Amino acid sequence: MLDTPPIRTNWTREEAEEIYAQPFMDLLFQAQSLHRQMFDPNAVQKSRLLSIKTGGCAEDCAYCSQSARNGAQLPASKLIEVQRVIAEARKARDAGATRYCMGAAWRGPKARDMAQLEAMIEGVKALGMETCMTLGMLEQDQVLRLRDAGLDYYNHNIDTSERYYPEVITTRSFADRIDTLARVREAGINVCSGGILGMGEEHGDRIDMLLSLATLPEHPQSVPINMLIPMADTPLADTPPLDPIEFVRTIALARILMPRAHVRLSAGRTEMSDELQAMCIFAGANSIFMGDTLLTADNPEEDADEALFDRLGLRAMAAGSHGTR
After folding, report:
1. What residues bind [4Fe-4S] cluster, as annotated (predicted)?
2. Annotated binding site
3. Which of 51, 58, 63, 136 is deepest in the core (most CB within 10 A)?
4. Are 109 and 136 in contact (CB under 8 A)?
């Protein structure tokens, strides 16, 4: 077996551009070769995502139907009951999920929410599952409370490059995102952070987004790569679709720059053919969300995922698997 490559956090823009722009087959070969050194190439992690509080978000993310500032005006719900979360997590575990992600549409949690969030974490962990939450921006005391409750991963996507970020979101800055990631990382919680492709950005923005993550003091342990799902009545509703080859190139670059990360093929799979999903997995994606809904967006049904796994000879990654073969 080949020696595992060194993990770098000093990638340059020129290096990343050269990797991204090389002939497509060479790029895939490099990404797959590296992937095989770090992970079982035929194992894919299955996660499940539950919206624990939907709609009425104060942020203005141009892609999101949950923003109170967008035309969709999805009504705000209350934070759902702890026992319902645990019941849904149990169903997900029994269906093969090993990580359970809980997402709330808000700028950040309030003090009154914390005890309920802690109980959710504790209840899901008691089922033997890894826990992940995405709750917006966090203050230091909130990070510590989530850590002490046993949270394994915190998701906080940077969405796009720092240059393009103001075109998508104006109610918080790119630096706000990086600050929250730093608090989470320094507290010892695993970081889950990626972006959304196809929002009208240039290919250089996709490279820069990944470089922002790959040059952090420590790489995120999980990197979700989303394809924009244009939502009706949002500012990005009429955005033309991204070239699928560009999407695969970005997956491959993520694998090469951050070789130990779980690269998650996230939102947008309903619009992807089986062949495109297979190409993404070959390029280094090794995590998916299962279930027919991602927060408010559609996701392939579990039967479709099982059929795809069977066709490709894939199997579910065991709980607690973190790569490095």
Report:
1. 57, 61, 64
2. 57, 61, 64, 101, 132, 192, 264
3. 63
4. yes
Inter-residue contact 109 to 117 (CB < 8 Å)? yes
DSSP one-letter string for 276-287 = HHHHHHHTT--E
User: Active-site residues: which are they?
Assistant: 57, 61, 64, 101, 132, 192, 264
Task: For the chain, 325 residues long, give each residue's pLDDT as a single digit of tens.
Answer: 456 778 999 999 999 999 999 999 999 999 999 999 999 999 999 888 898 987 778 888 888 887 766 655 566 778 899 999 999 999 989 888 888 999 988 888 999 999 999 999 999 999 999 999 999 999 999 999 999 999 999 999 999 999 999 999 999 999 999 999 999 999 999 999 999 999 999 999 999 999 999 999 999 999 999 999 888 888 888 899 999 999 999 999 999 999 999 999 988 888 899 999 999 999 999 998 876 554 445 555 667 888 889 999 999 887 666 655 5
Return the half-sphere exposure (C-beta side, CA atoms, 13 A cut-off) of residue 240.
6
Binding region for [2Fe-2S] cluster = 101, 132, 192, 264
**CA 194/CA 255 separation, integer angstroms:** 12
Q: How far apart are CA 226 and CA 215, in angstroms?
A: 20
Regarding the domain with residue range 13-315, which homologous superfamily does it belong to in the CATH classification? Aldolase class I (3.20.20.70)
Q: Collapsing DSSP states into helix, strand and coil, what is residue 68?
A: coil
The total of other beta-carbon atoms located within 10 Å of residue 80's CB is 18
